[in-house]
Amino acid sequence: MRGIVGLLLCLLTPKLLPAQPVSQHTLSGFVTDSESGERLPGANLYAPALRIGTVTNDFGFYSLTLPADAVVLRISYLGYQPRTLAVHLRRDLDLNFALTPVAVGLDEVEIVADRGEREVESTQMSAIDLPVEAVKMLPALLGEVDVIKAIQLLPGVQSGTEGSTGLYVRGGGPDQNLILLDGAPVYNASHVFGFLSVFNADALQQVRLIKGGFPARYGGRLSAVVDLSMKEGNLKRYEADGTVGLVFSSLTAQGPLVKDKASFIVSARRTYIDVLARPFLNRNLEDGQSLTSYFYDANAKVNYIASPRNRLFGSLYLGRDVYGSTFETVDRARNPVYREQNTGGAHWGNVTATLRWNHLFSNQLFANTTLLYSRYHFDVLSRLTQIKETTPARQTSEEITYSSGIEDLGARIDFDFRPAPAHYIRFGSSVTQHRFNPGISTLQLRLADAGGTDTTLTPNTFPFAATEAFLYAEDDVRLTSHLKANLGLHASAMRVNGTTYASLQPRLAVRYLLHPDWSLKASFGTMQQYLHLLTNTGINLPTDLWLAATDRIRPQRAWQLALGTAYSLSADYLVSVEGYYKSMRSLIEYKPGASFIAPNQDWQDKVAVGCGWSYGVEVFLRKKQGRTTGWIGYTLSWTQRRFDALNDGAAFPYRYDRRHDVSVVLTHALSKRLDLGATWVYGTGQAITLATARFANGHLLDPQAFLDPNALPDLRVYGSHGGYRMAPYHRLDLALNWHFGKAFFLESGESTLSAGAYNVYNRKNPFYLFTATGPDGERQYRQASLFPVLPYVAYRFRF
Q: For position 174, what pLDDT does the model report?
């Protein structure tokens, strides 16, 4: 018995690390793309004999301290041919590595996998990196590649309504996701009412989702981090690529400003559905009517290598959606003639800008300083103009506008310090001034008979400012040969309208290595969010309002515990299983009957405050390399909410509570020039609230009374909140990509012709339910569906 106990203790007790040798030297530098000169974030550097390694930071920098001896070092990055070389360390060395991309179709090249070093050996859990080039091979709605829709295919992430780009991560809402573009927050990530995201894949270098186990350097949100980095621009040669689709087109140009010293990249896209549809719309519109709807966005970035230790980056994003209609009537029977114009519409968009300075203090200390600006704004307009055609003309107008938005101006500094192989220390601070415009309604009257006098009425909701700041420190420490931990603390505060909120948020992640290819992981973290989002519907409309915590509405708070395991089945396959529990407080929702545009009413009087919780299990099987790549994800989860003002104070399922969620994502190289992409998704139906009875004039109506147009109801009786579920959601998407040797009309370059279909088997998925009269005269609920099978063709080129 003693022998068995001793054996168990021997196996379970971590072995202490051997004493560090007296003589050590530091190897440091950058890992880059050999063809463009761009730096590669997250590249692996590993010394197999010593079982010591590291990864490059977000700017491609690494620092690795090793014994003063000959060492074999391996450098790898997904999508690139790995390098292995021997280095003899006699002193500290600055050594840069350039990796060669694996060309499409070169299946003869043997790619040696990194055996999941990042996933299995890292302390980070609940995080997934998405290669942008792999996303481009997947089927896309209307042919437009969308990284946010690819993120929706990952376990633990719900998509919201049909076709939308909303992200509901582990039971959280869209406002609880920190979406960063080159370090600047993006507050509305959707175009065309949520059907397409604002991120142009051609301009992106890296996409990362973190849904739990948040490192201390991230803060301000409860549910997820979506960290997107733009490409830096080719330092060696000029190139251009673009896409021509059925309703969208884009063009990207990049190249050196000074070869190997400075570069730029500019990318833009626009939909021309408004131009294509205009002839068809005009046929169905009456004289004097017109409609318009379109969006555009643009990305730009420059980078300048001032010296081996200093580098500057500047990046810019701007995007805009426009929707409008005009209707004009002329009454020629009157004398004088009256002309009446009705104009309405909305426009909204984002602007982000960052200026970054990388500085290398030593071969172990790296710093990045960021100045950032972000602005989201929308306007809704309705104007009625009446013109009396006299001499001179007399004009009377009534204009109602509604505008809202949020604007940030901030500064941040982050340090990476690697004093020894067993420690990777990060620390830094940030300060941001938010300026909120929570909703300004303006009524403007211009009366012809009053000499053009204007009268403006504005409700009691005015712009205000708030200052948010945080400090953080974390250490990714290797305690033993089997045990690693990430210990961190995030301290934050916000001051708004004389009220100060502060929070200390401990973060902990632990990894225990059972085997070189198998690890157990656990994480715990607390988060505080000082911003709220008031949303009217389940669709990403521009009328969603960003607001700050007040003395009446406290900040949102959450804690999350996650346990899991990661196992590298082989050189190509990785499987992970995670269970989580998340508790949330100070959530807000509109009270029944409240509206975002109600005049002269403080938003704090419109909302109910409550709590929520979510728990579940996620299974993720991924194949990252080879002719066939992709993943299978499965989520079993429960998400509940409770508000005193809703559902009689009882808990109810959140709208996007899905018991089962499945995604299958595959790409397969049929040949050197032809590849196939397929996605299949399944989800339990959404939880909704339905009316069970209707009253008019205080009396219960019989079924025939529903048919009486004069019997207008004044009361509806609803069932339990979220007590009904719509039909399950599922669909299959397919794409076929044919790669050419040269771009169209050019003698060089490469191009791809993509053809595919969204919702291949034409599933009638539920979008919403509405009431209608059945054959027997009874009122019934019926299902409305949005997208049938949608084929597409897109042409991508590069030269």
A: 86
- SS3 state at 277: helix
Domain residue limits at 158: 127-560+568-686+726-798
Copy the structure tokens of residue 712: 């207008």
Same domain, 707 and 749: no
Coil, strand or helix: which one is 195?
A: coil
CB-neighbour burial class of residue 747 (10 A; exposed 0-12, middle 13-18, buried 19+): exposed
Q: How many CB atoms lie within 10 A of CB 645?
A: 14
| Residue at token pair 């010591």 | 52
On the CB side of 327, CA atoms within 13 Å amount to: 7
**Cβ neighbours of residue 283 closer than 8 Å, sequence gap 6 or more:** none
Count: domains in the chain:
3
**Tens digit of each residue's pLDDT (9 = 90 or more) over 314-370:** 999 999 988 877 776 666 666 666 667 677 778 889 999 999 999 999 999 999 999
* C-beta separation of 533 from 173 below 8 A: yes
Pairing, β 394-420 against β 729-740: unpaired
Q: What is the mean pLDDT of residues 421-448?
A: 80
Please check whether residue 119 lies inside any domain of the structure. Answer: no
Residues 279-299 have a mean pLDDT of 69
Sequence length of the chain is 799
| Per-residue pLDDT reduced to its tens digit, 2-35 | 444 343 334 334 444 444 445 788 888 999 998 8
Q: CA-to-CA distance for 573 and 621, rounded, in angstroms?
A: 7
Task: Calculate the CA dihedral of residues 163, 166, 167, 171 and round it to 10 degrees.
Answer: -100
Q: Is 651 exposed, middle or buried (0-12, 13-18, 19+ CB in 10 A)?
A: middle
677, amino acid identity = G
pLDDT tens, position by position, 80-107: 888 988 888 888 888 899 999 876 443 4
Question: Quick one: tokens of 70?
Answer: 């000959």
Asked if residue 334 is part of any domain, the answer here is yes
CA distances from 113 to 78, 116, 574, 730 (A): 8, 8, 11, 34
- pLDDT(700) > 60: no
- Among 102, 118, 137, the domain-final residue is 102
Q: CA nearest 56: which of 102, 110, 95?
A: 95
Select from 54, 85, 102 the last residue of a domain. Answer: 102
Q: Percent of the chain beyond pLDDT 90? A: 42
| φ, ψ of residue 211 in degrees (nearest 5) | -115, 5
Residues 292, 261 share a domain: yes
Q: Would 108 be classed as within a structural domain? A: no
**230 contact partners, CB below 8 Å, separation of at least 6:** 181, 182, 203, 204, 205, 265, 299, 301, 315
> Is residue 158 scored above 50 in pLDDT?
yes
Query: Whole-model pTM above 0.85?
Result: yes
Residue 375 has pLDDT above 50, yes or no: yes
Same domain as 517, residue 428: yes
**H/E segment holding residue 627:** none
Q: Is the pLDDT of residue 586 over 90?
A: yes
Give residue 433's Cα distance to chain centre. Answer: 22
